Every structure is written in structure tokens, then in C-alpha cells.
């Protein structure tokens, strides 16, 4: 009798971190498996640790090797941390992509806005629908989240059903789109769910996430009570929040001006797909200055402090069309993603200095999370009754707390894994059975670099300690043709005694050359290495830092 196929799971991103989501499911044996990928997202670079890096993406080298066995890529929803890497990485995979209508339309608009984006076909699956992808039958189950058409995926296989929740919450009164489909989730629980792969983002927070309807009421009250101009910033993809802002503007007899390309793109897609039906038309930025102060509301990008986004430019008073003055108001209808605190704080401070009133989620209920708190996690477990729960989409603390909650809720088996772990889900006892290659890719301008990239490592070092450049011209006999050229970048002008670093480094270069035997002076590589060591040592002696040093030796 043939052994049944094993069902395995491996996260390649999004576990032990928030962002850069990529999960893969395999069906077969260890010699031959069919693979299904779920989501392909990005996280964002940190200028302090990764200067010049715009985006971070999961390493897909394993899927590249398994490309002929990769049946498809399924998208749970259209947030950047779940679909933002597709344009860059899909050409390495060229597998079919499956998504519902709004996600597909937003992806198409994203491709249209990107220079030289490849043509990437997407198969549209109806919300609540099912599609066969190789040996996997994937069902799209509607869940509430902060973007239209978020879906949990019920992955039906011969080895059992896996529920991959994606990002979700329980919102009984969503202002737009479907509520989480409790009925279908309960039905799956009765059928028998082998494993629940679940969102852990808010596993540390008690209770339940408030509803979008409560936020909508708060925004109406704030906009109606405002005296001057009002600007609202939120995640562009949160169409429910965009609708709430539009409703508030209408209630206060204000025109909505949309500011920022990302917001314009989402609004256009939301109108095309029917999610802003009945919502008034919005105005373009050039109209803003011609409207009375109490008759305008600017809906802006830039809630995360992005330096090129609309709100940062407004706060710096360098936006060509939008200005704010004393007595105006800005509502941050968003939460600050960890790592963005400094950038957001800088914008808030600039606005306050201009006399603008700033309202954040610390002041009023102007934002709610799209992720489940602890009572909602317990509800999901009680509906689905999984045999196994694996926490994902969270940092170590979130995963730990989700696992602890699941054990307390009576889940028979709970397993915490890391990116790259290969987990056997069934049949038989689940567990970590191996490892697959995982890691990070950095988008550096238009180039993708791996985490060991020399450019990334050296740029980080240069950001910390500058760089020294030395050019030396030597004769074939090992004599200097002219004085060495020294150029110091990002290094202080003088040491504590007031001596210039240019002179200190020049003297070190000269004394090193003069102190070398003629044979070493005739060897360009040996000479360059001796000078490099001497320059780094003398700068360290006077400054306490060792900058990179590049030495060019020209033999004439």
C-alpha cells in the first residue's frame, strides 16, 4: 500500500517579524512535492541600519529551484507586506497568480504606475469561491480587515484542511465590505481542520479590536467641530477609512481634496470596483487653495512619515498646492508602524510649530487595528477547532503569546517555528522535519542584493564612520612620482588637539611609504595594503573609529 502524501508548511518571511510575508505549502514526499505559495510581500528599510535600502523582500532561492513544481501564488489581500514584492520577484518564478477582484485591480494599477513593470497575469477568483491549483483546492473565505477583500484561505488537500487566516479581525459592523464569515469557519470546524496558521499581530492585547463604525463616528464629530482647514492622513489602502472621511466631509459641508499618488490610485481602483459607490467625487490638489478654509478637507498620504509623501511636504511647508496654518487641524487616522516613530514624530512637531492642532489615536478613537485581539483569537479557535495551531505574522513575543493562548484554549498541538523551518502538518504527528533556504533580499535602487552584499555592508560602515580615499603614483623603481592625494569623506576636520585630519592622514601615508623596503613599494597590492592599515590605525588613534579606506596605486 502506497504511503499517503505528506502536507508540509514553511514560512519564508513573516515569522519572527511583521512584514515580508511569504508562506509555502508542499504536498508529496521528500523526493517530489507540489508547492503552493501564499503572499509575497515586503518590509521597509531602516535608514539607520540599512542606508539607501528602500524595500526588504524574502529570499526565494528555494522556490526558484522548485519552480517547475510551484503550482501557483495565492494572495490573501493587497497590502504591501503581502503583495509588494511580486513585481520584482515574479519574473524569477513566472507561476500563476490567484486573487480576488479588488486585489487584482490594485495590483494592475500598481504595475501600471511602475516603470518597466513586467506583464504579470492574475487569475481572478470570486470572494467565497474555490479554485484548483495543482493538488490544492483553495477556498477564499471573507474576513474583516483594513482593506477590501481580505480573505482567509482554506487549503483543501488529501492530507487534510489547513486554514491560513491571513490578516483578519472580527468586526460585526464593518463600514465597507464583508464581515468575517463565521458561518463558513464554523462549518470548516465541523468538517475537521488539520492546522490553523494564524495572525499573531495583536496577541498581546486583551479584549476585542473596536469596529470601523466607531472610528467613522469619531471622525464625523472631529470634522464637524473643526474651525479651519482639516487634513486627514491614513493608510491609502484603507478604503473603509477613506469612505468614513468622505462621509464626515459631506456631513460638515466640506469638499474632499485627494493629495498623494498612492491615495489617488486606491481611490480610482475602489471606484472602479464599486467600493465607493454613492460617495461624492473628490477634487484635485490645485482646487485646494480656491476653497474657503471651512469648506475643504485634504485626504493625504504620509501617515508613516514617508519623506516624499504629501503630509511630510505639507509639514515642511514645501508642497506646491497644500498649506496649513494656525488653527487648522490634522487627524492621523492610523497607527505608527514600529520603526517609523522618529519620522512621524518629526512631522507632528513641524505641524505643531506651525500652530496646527494634531489629533492622533492617543487623543481620540481615530484608528483601529485590522488584526484580532485575544478574545477574537479565542473565537477563531472555538469555531475552527484545529488539531494544530502555528502562530505566524508576528515578532517573537506575539508568537509566544498566541501559542500560550492556544494551549490554554485547548488546541491539542501548538508549534512555534521560524522562517525557513519545514514543518510536517500531517498525516501523523506534526513537527519540524527540516529546513529550507530563507533570508532577505534588499532592493537597492533598481538592483536586488542579498543580505551579504558588499554594497550594503560597506554603506552601513560608511554611514557610521565615513571613508578615506588615498591615491598614490609610483615609478616602476618604487619612487613617488608626486605627493599622495588624500580625500576624507564623513570624517571630522580636526582632532581634539585641533590638528587637521587631512594632515594627520597625509603624514601617516608618507611615513608608511618611506618606511617600506623598495621591493614592497614596487608591489602595488602590498603598498596599498600597508597604507590602508596605517590610515585606519591613525584615524582610530585620533578619533576612536576605523573608517573604510580605499587606496589606489598607479604605476607610471
TrEMBL record:
Limits of the Metallo-beta-lactamase domain: 21-219
TM region positions: none
Alphabetized GO MF terms: hydrolase activity
A Pfam family assignment: RMMBL
Record's keyword terms, sorted: Cytoplasm, Exonuclease, Hydrolase, Metal-binding, Nuclease, RNA-binding, Zinc
Alphabetical list of InterPro entries matching this protein: Metallo-B-lactamas, RibonucZ/Hydroxyglut_hydro, RMMBL, RNase_J, RNase_J_2, RNase_J_b_CASP, RNase_J_C
Known EC number: 3.1.-.-
Record PANTHER family: RIBONUCLEASE J
Protein name: Ribonuclease J
Source organism (scientific name): Bradyrhizobium yuanmingense
Taxonomic placement: Bacteria, Pseudomonadati, Pseudomonadota, Alphaproteobacteria, Hyphomicrobiales
Amino acid at each position: 500500500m502506497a504511503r499517503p502524501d505528506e502536507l508540509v508548511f514553511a514560512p519564508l518571511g513573516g515569522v519572527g517579524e511583521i512584514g515580508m510575508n511569504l508562506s509555502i505549502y508542499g504536498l508529496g514526499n521528500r523526493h517530489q512535492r507540489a508547492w503552493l505559495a501564499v503572499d509575497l510581500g515586503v518590509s521597509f528599510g531602516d535608514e539607520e541600519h540599512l542606508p539607501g535600502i528602500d524595500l526588504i523582500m524574502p529570499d526565494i532561492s528555494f522556490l526558484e529551484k522548485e519552480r517547475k513544481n510551484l503550482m501557483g501564488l495565492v494572495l490573501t489581500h493587497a497590502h504591501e507586506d503581502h503583495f509588494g514584492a511580486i513585481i520584482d520577484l515574479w519574473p524569477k518564478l513566472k507561476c500563476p497568480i490567484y486573487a480576488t477582484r479588488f486585489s487584482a485591480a490594485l495590483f494592475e494599477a500598481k504595475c501600471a504606475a511602475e516603470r518597466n513593470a513586467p506583464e504579470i497575469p492574475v487569475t481572478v477568483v470570486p470572494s467565497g469561491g474555490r479554485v484548483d491549483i495543482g493538488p490544492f483546492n483553495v477556498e477564499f473565505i471573507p474576513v474583516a480587515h483594513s482593506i477590501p477583500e481580505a480573505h482567509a484561505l482554506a487549503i483543501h488537500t488529501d492530507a487534510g484542511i489547513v486554514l491560513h487566516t491571513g490578516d483578519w479581525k472580527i468586526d460585526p459592523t464593518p463600514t465597507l465590505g464583508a464581515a468575517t464569515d463565521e458561518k463558513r469557519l464554523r462549518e470548516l470546524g465541523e468538517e475537521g481542520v488539520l492546522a490553523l496558521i494564524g495572525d499573531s499581530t495583536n496577541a498581546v492585547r486583551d479584549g476585542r479590536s473596536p469596529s470601523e463604525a466607531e472610528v467613522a463616528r469619531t471622525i464625523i464629530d472631529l470634522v464637524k467641530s473643526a474651525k479651519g482647514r482639516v487634513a486627514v492622513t491614513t493608510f491609502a489602502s484603507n478604503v473603509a477609512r477613506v469612505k468614513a472621511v468622505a462621509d464626515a466631509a459631506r456631513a460638515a459641508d466640506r469638499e474632499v481634496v485627494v493629495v498623494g499618488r498612492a491615495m489617488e490610485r486606491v481611490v480610482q481602483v475602489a471606484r472602479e470596483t464599486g467600493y465607493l459607490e454613492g460617495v461624492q467625487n473628490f477634487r484635485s490638489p490645485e482646487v485646494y487653495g480656491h476653497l474657503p478654509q471651512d469648506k475643504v478637507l485634504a485626504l493625504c498620504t504620509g501617515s508613516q512619515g514617508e519623506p516624499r509623501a504629501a503630509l511630510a511636504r505639507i509639514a515642511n511647508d514645501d508642497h506646491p498646492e497644500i498649506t496649513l496654518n494656525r488653527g487648522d487641524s490634522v487627524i492621523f487616522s492610523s497607527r505608527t508602524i514600529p520603526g517609523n516613530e522618529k519620522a512621524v514624530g518629526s512631522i507632528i512637531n513641524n505641524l505643531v510649530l506651525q500652530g496646527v492642532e494634531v489629533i492622533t489615536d492617543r487623543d481620540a478613537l481615530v484608528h483601529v487595528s485590522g488584526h484580532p485581539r485575544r478574545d477574537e483569537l479565542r473565537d477563531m479557535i472555538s469555531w475552527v477547532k484545529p488539531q494544530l495551531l502555528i502562530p505566524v505574522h508576528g515578532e517573537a513575543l506575539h508568537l509566544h503569546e498566541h501559542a500560550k493562548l492556544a494551549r490554554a484554549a485547548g488546541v491539542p498541538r501548538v508549534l512555534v517555528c521560524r522562517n525557513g523551518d519545514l514543518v510536517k502538518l500531517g498525516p501523523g504527528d506534526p513537527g519540524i522535519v527540516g529546513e529550507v533556504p530563507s533570508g532577505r533580499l534588499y532592493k537597492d535602487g533598481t538592483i536586488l542584493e542579498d543580505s551579504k552584499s558588499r554594497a550594503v555592508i560597506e554603506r552601513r560602515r560608511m554611514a557610521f564612520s565615513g571613508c578615506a580615499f588615498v591615491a598614490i603614483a609610483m615609478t616602476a623603481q618604487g619612487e613617488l612620482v608626486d605627493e599622495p592625494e588624500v580625500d576624507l569623506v564623513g570624517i571630522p576636520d580636526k582632532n581634539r588637539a585641533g590638528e587637521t585630519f587631512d594632515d594627520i592622514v597625509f603624514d601617516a601615508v608618507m611615513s608608511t611609504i618611506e618606511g617600506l623596503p623598495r621591493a614592497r613599494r614596487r608591489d602595488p597590492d602590498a603598498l596599498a595594503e600597508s597604507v590602508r592599515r596605517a590610515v585606519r590605525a591613525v584615524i582610530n588613534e585620533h578619533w576612536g573609529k576605523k573608517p573604510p579606506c580605499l587606496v589606489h596605486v598607479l604605476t607610471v
